[in-house]
Amino acid sequence: MVEAPEFANRLALVITGHVMSGISGPEFVAEFRSRMPQVPVLVLSTTKDTEKEYQGIGGVYNSQTNSPDELRSLVARLVGAGQQQTA
């Protein structure tokens, strides 16, 4: 989907999990970054110290333990920033 220009041009944020079937969160983020480095990625996880696994591929880490208001604020900041970040 990210290779289709009509989709990719409208993509403002990707939200993904840290633990997935078939690929790890860091592997997914690294692959996504190689294709769309300008789109922020929010990684949700309840695992401690997960952010260490994303060092070198960018940004900030966020846990599912945050309140809905905190997550909404973070999403708004990431979409507004349009920076190369991982949250």
Structural class, from secondary structure content? alpha/beta
The proportion of residues forming helix, as a percent range, comes to 25-40%
User: How would you sum up the major sheet?
Assistant: 3 strands, parallel
Series of secondary-structure elements, N-terminal to C-terminal? HEHEEH
What is the total number of structural domains? 1
**Based on DSSP secondary structure assignment, what is the total number of beta strands?**
3
Mean pLDDT: 80
CA-based gyration radius: 13 Å
The termini sit apart by 21 Å
Q: What is the strand content?
A: 5-15%
- The largest beta-sheet arranges its strands as 1-2-3
Instruction: State the low-pLDDT regions, or none.
Output: none
Task: Describe what you observe in this structure.
By secondary structure, the chain is an alpha/beta fold. The protein has helices at residues 5-8, 25-35, 68-81; strands at residues 14-17, 41-45, 62-63. The protein has one domain. 33% of the residues lie in helices and 13% in strands. The chain has a three-stranded parallel beta sheet with strand order 1-2-3, covered by helices on one side. Strand 1 (14-17), helix 2 and strand 2 (41-45) form a beta-alpha-beta unit.
